[in-house]
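Order emerges. As here.
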Amino acid sequence: MDIAQATTRIALISILVALVVTGLKVIAWRVTGSVALYSDALESIVNLMTALAVVAAIRVAAKPADGRHPFGHHKAEHIAAGLEGALIAAAAILILQEAYGAFQSPRHIEAPALGLAINALAAVLNGAWGMHLIRQGGLLRSPALTADGWHLMSDVATSVGVLVGLLLALATGWLWLDPLLAGIVAIAVLYAGWRIITQSMSGLMDETATADIMTRIRATIAERGEGALQVHDLRARVAGPATFIEFHLVVPGERTVREAHEICDRLEDALKEAVPGARVLIHVEPTEKAKEAGAIPINGHGGTGPDHSTTSPHRS
């Protein structure tokens, strides 16, 4: 099973999990009439909607490059993550509205033991699946899965807070704690939505790859660039499961086009092994184009020796 199939399968399971969790939380809310449990249920409804959006985005992102999208459709996952953040923010506003009304007219909580038990079960299921999504999102390099996982974990945190707060409200008889908890949940949900939106915008704006990825790229080039002198103007960006890597490769002037091409092939294969999903673009240059600042030396060379070449082959 390839990465796209594995990601799609996990996203489809997320829909099933979201359906079960949403059903449990809606039952807990209906049983108790608690506005705090209502806020928890509403957030799970948003989870279900975003799970559907994630499946659609992953399928679009998996499409191969075409005439209109020569670099592929990888950013579809970042768009889905941004949509998820916007939906989460909308849910927070709805929760605040309901909490305000309930704060003005506190409501008695019915069948609290049953409702809290059902909600606790939903939180455990959400937590287990959220951790799985974060782990798999990292392994499969899927920002949509990762964003969905962190959203579920924020949902778990708010669920735990709601459960503890409602137990306190029942013990003290302070019914105003119920809408107060709903308001706190809304603020936490709004923050989670904002964080997801900012992360998705970073991907859409071609933010540079992480320090870990850049370290792996530099180490791979230094180790596997035998025959070349240096690499400079290295750039890398992440778009969904793909990492686009570009750099200038300086080769000795006596190298033929065929030899330079072989070096490029070796580097491209090594980078794809070191960085799964890598898309590599290499610009080959003669020795006279070597740079001192910011260059990656290969085999101890800095690329500042004499140049004997009149050609500048390219590899992409």
